[in-house]
Amino acid sequence: MARFDTIIRNGTAIIPQQGPLNATIAISAGKIAGLLDPSESVDAEETIDAGGMVLLPGLIDPHMHIGFVGLPLSDVASESRSASIGGVTTILNYVLKPEPYDAPFAEFVDHIQRLAYVDMGIHFGIFSSAHIRELGHYINDLGVSSFKFFMSYKGDEASKRGLTPVDDGLLFEFLRELATYPGAMANIHAENIEVIWRFEERVREQGLDGLLAHNLSRPGFTEADDVTTACYFGQITGAPLYFVHISSREGAEAVGRYRATGKVFVETTPHYLSLTIDSPCGLLAKINPPVRTQDDIDALWVAIRDGIVDTIGNDHAARTRQEKSGDVWHAGASFPGVATMLSIMLNEGYHKRGVSLQRIAELTSYNTARIFNLFPRKGTIQVGSDADIAIVDVNREMTVNPEYLQSRADFSPWEGWNLKGWAMRTLVRGRTVMQDGRITGEAGYGTYLRRPLPAELVGGGR
After folding, report:
1. Could you give the 3-state DSSP secondary structure of residue 169?
2. What is the C-alpha to C-alpha distance for residues 433 and 77, in angstroms, rounded to an integer?
3. pTM reported for the whole predicted model
4. pLDDT of the residue at 354
5. What whole-number distance in Å separates Cα of residue 81 and Cα of residue 338?
6. Which domains are present in the chain?
7. For residues 245 and 310, what is the distance between their CA atoms, to the nearest angstrom?
8. Alpha carbon distance, N-terminus to C-terminus of the chain
């Protein structure tokens, strides 16, 4: 009889691209070693009884901000713990600096190795021609194969964050060079800031405040406009594009027109799928792009149904309640979300709209792994993959409480919401790091994930 380190019995595994599977999952040396018939006798050092719950591939958050604009790098500890609460086993974090990345990279990897509870990879921001010239070094030597370009960071919009302003010429230069590295990805923040400046001036003159004012100052067509520009540049250069946090009906429609190229990928977020300008949390939900209207929410769920959306990210940042104070023009943007990602998708998608568990697994893990060069190590439940598994009670109802989420942030925009569907146990490479809301893992167990390029671009796999 074969002996394994761990087996998981009495659960239904959700296999992306396949569907549910009743199997005993066998784990050895941190990897999935077998998907066995439940009737088979198996010997293991540890047996986990899933109690009829669902087994999802460990979730991957492709969009987190630790260490950005005053946020401490020590948040690697608290925010990776918070990730495990939500069944998230892999984080991809943005490192955004105007200088060369060797030193910031080494500093961040050091924090991962000392503090992380889950596995972590890195994206770099592109703010200069010097960054573009170093793409080959970043990809081949540092294992970073995705790069963010803020189309909105022009003029003071960048400099007030300590970054170098960009322009469309730099975007084109970046995409032209990136296209020479098949499998590397351009992550695009699409908002036409020059139009936004004009709208913000008008909204301020009208004396408006709150989430309504924020939405009016950054209308959805400014997202769609930059989506169109970037997609046209992508067609000319051949570079693949991954649009982060698409927030609006206009943005989803714009990106949908370019999907046939096979090189356009789309992320949206739980907040754009659930929060509106009328949400009672008020400016706790301020973020860029803004939360919008119920019409935009409905359009994004249709985009999920129609296969326009590939992934779910969180744009997570551990802001505090104090940083969100003041009027809309002074309250800080961004908020935490990694711990509630799965519960929002289950509550709003699976229970309310009939989105299948297989589709949720693809949106929250499989597609992300394929787009960002982590597959098949991450993103699925199959023999040879890392044993990253979220054991989920899809019918468990709990009220969102910031204390339970264990972020350094002391609030959640969903605070007080009753959500149906929660991760009850999180395994990273076969080791339980969270069980029933208790952190059982150790700081430094998480590892830095190098993401080498495949021979050719791996698609979203819908």
Report:
1. helix
2. 13
3. 0.96
4. 98
5. 10
6. 96-310+340-371 (3.20.20.140)
7. 11
8. 38
